[in-house]
# Entry
Amino acid sequence: MSASRSMFGFVDLTLILLGSVALIGQLDQREARASVAIKPNDPEEYREVVSVALAEIFPPNEARVSTRGKVWLNGLAERAKERRLAVGVAIDAPGPGGRMNGWEQAAARTAAIIYALEASGYPEDKIEPQLPHVRVGAPDIAISIGE
# Structure
């Protein structure tokens, strides 16, 4: 009885260890894919950075691009001439009546800029978002233009 119990214990432990190794391998694969997705941009890839105030592109507490913002983004699209763009929006403290927190608003504004650029005919595969940055002396909106 103790020999079969030891054998079952050994098999059980072996299966647990095998499952742990498989799980660790799967997590490493996911981490590698995620690190590529949120990898900071290489500063050498982007030669020019264009900065603009939030008020030029968005109405207060909004994530919709204003008419003036669309005109500015269309001008940027013509200037960039289908080079790579990296769009980053600063985290802004929501004002009174704001529906979103700072991170949500920065993400929504980044998506709105990307959508407006795509709507103006800019190639989708040439635009990438950057992680939001906390505004401490940083520009409100920074769009890096690459090669």
The first strand starts at residue 46 and ends at 52. The chain has two domains: 1-39, 46-146. The longest helix spans residues 2-37. The chain has a mean pLDDT of 79.
